[in-house]
Write a structure and sequence with these properties.
The structure is a homodimer. The first copy, chain A, is an alpha/beta fold. Chain A has helices spanning 7-21, 26-39, 49-64, 71-83, 85-92, 98-108, 122-131, 142-151, 164-178, 199-204, 230-238, 247-253, 269-275, and strands at residues 137-140, 154-158, 183-188, 212-215, 241-245, 260-265, 282-287. In chain A, α1 (7-21) packs parallel to α3 (49-64).
């Protein structure tokens, strides 16, 4: 997806939010916005939003000296989400189509995004998830998901945020139980970027019990293939099916020619308009391989 | 009021909205945002938001060649608001405290602001005003307003937006009926800026029947005294009481030492936080002269 002009104010907003979470002086916060403002004219809008966000977030450690301001948030998100794991699992029991419920939960977990909202109350968000059964699903290619999953041997699962990965774990467990022979790779970021999940997070919530955990060699928000490691690129190329979590991965991979199932909660009006749905809708979008 | 860091993303958003209303190419829209980005690092945050907005909006005609993109919107806002004038006046009849109702209506009219929302449906907004009687008034210095009004001979009324001025007319008529001897000056902008009222707008809706209509010599959003005409500055200095409409005037005059009653609808979280209330609250804030 290309960057829209509406994304520009949002980059400044996100950067300010990150600078605040880094707990630096207002003067340094302004310096960070100024630096991004200086670079902006040279950035073409043909870049995807995560490509520009990657440049923007790169300014933060440069000026603040802080490489991982979201560390505490990531850790806490995992802990809180994990504490709800038994209740979340209970919600699946007895449902007619377990896989469907797990897919829904994995998408609902995408509400945990501190790049979009810095005032997120995790506990109350998860309680809402536990107490709701009617979600607005505007694009939901579930039958295709089920079909492609069945026939795919080699699955790549691109993670998004810490905390959210507990919801991924539920889906991965269901996939592993149904198809123990399939090879599933679960991919996190190599270095800190916002609250995106890292290797340590994946292990902490036990993803490794159900999938091979690896990094993509990059610290970009989303998945910018050109910035990823050779190892990741090889696996990305070979995968039969890709499950991609979060709006950032959608924004950076929507022009891909691979078989991808994008799972995310719509976070902004730009993406909502781009795919024709509303903010907060659950999306399971099949990007069919062009053969 | 100084500019907060949160205002920075908002300047970009407002500028983009104005560029779109000017109906120029996406390339030129980007050029306008880029130009503002280039200037931004040199602008100190001690400036009030309207001072920075004035710089930002100045880029628009420079690049687009369009000096008055909101012309049609202004004209239409006046026409639509005027068509509701009989119903609005009827709403006042029979109320116990007519002045109070007129003050409330004048503030409610401040909803007509295309700098904040470009998707405003004027008719439905005015219908809402006609059908509601419970407004959230967090700061409402009405008894002070009534008292100061009574004793003031020379009143300065700073207008905000086209369309909204029809609501001002109602308040002005009530003031004129109650106090026919008082001298009231109604001040509009000299040249186009967003949908702010101009001389032509004031005459179109008949303000001149109830007040002397004049311009402030400036095309800044809000009232930036240093940019105003000598004539306006003289009147501003002499006035016993100033009625100031809209958030822009509040932002630019909140540090004034004059007796000012700020009347506006809270439009953003920054101002809401600054004065301690919520977005959409009606505010009648007494800025008492420091003697």
């Amino acid at each position: 997806m290309k960057t829209y002009l509406d994304c520009i104010p949002c980059f400044f907003r996100q950067l300010l939010s990150a600078a605040r979470i880094a707990n630096i002086s207002a003067r340094d916060q302004k310096k960070i916005l100024d630096k991004f403002a200086q670079i902006l004219p040279d950035i073409p809008l043909s870049y995807s939003p995560p490509e520009i966000a990657h440049i923007a977030y790169g300014i933060l450690p440069e000026i603040s000296g802080k490489k991982d301001p979201y560390n505490r948030i990531r850790r806490k998100s995992n802990e809180i989400a994990l504490s709800f794991l038994p209740q979340l699992k209970k919600k699946i029991e007895g449902t007619k189509d377990k896989l469907l419920k797990c897919v829904e939960l994995a998408i609902l977990g995408n509400v945990i995004d501190f790049g979009v909202r810095d005032d997120l109350n995790l506990r109350s968000e998860i309680k809402k998830i536990l107490n709701t059964d009617n979600y607005k699903k505007s694009i939901f290619h579930y039958s295709e998901f089920k079909r492609v999953l069945k026939k795919s041997d080699f699955i790549l699962y691109l993670a998004d945020n810490a905390g959210e990965i507990v919801f991924d774990r539920i889906l991965l467990e269901e996939m592993k139980n149904t198809y123990p022979q399939k090879k599933i790779y679960y991919v996190v970021k190599s270095e800190p970027i916002i609250n995106d999940a890292l290797l340590d997070d994946a292990y902490r919530v036990g993803i490794n019990m159900f999938a091979y955990v690896m990094t993509n060699g990059s610290n970009a928000p989303g998945t910018i293939i050109s910035l990823c490691s050779k190892e990741f690129k090889g696996i990305y190329k070979k995968a039969d099916m890709i499950i991609s979590k979060g709006q950032g991965n959608f924004e950076s991979l929507s022009r891909s020619t691979k078989d991808i199932f994008f799972m995310f909660m719509v976070k902004c009006s730009v993406v909502a308009k781009h795919i024709g749905c509303n903010i907060s809708d659950l999306v399971l979008l099949y990007n069919k391989k062009r053969r």
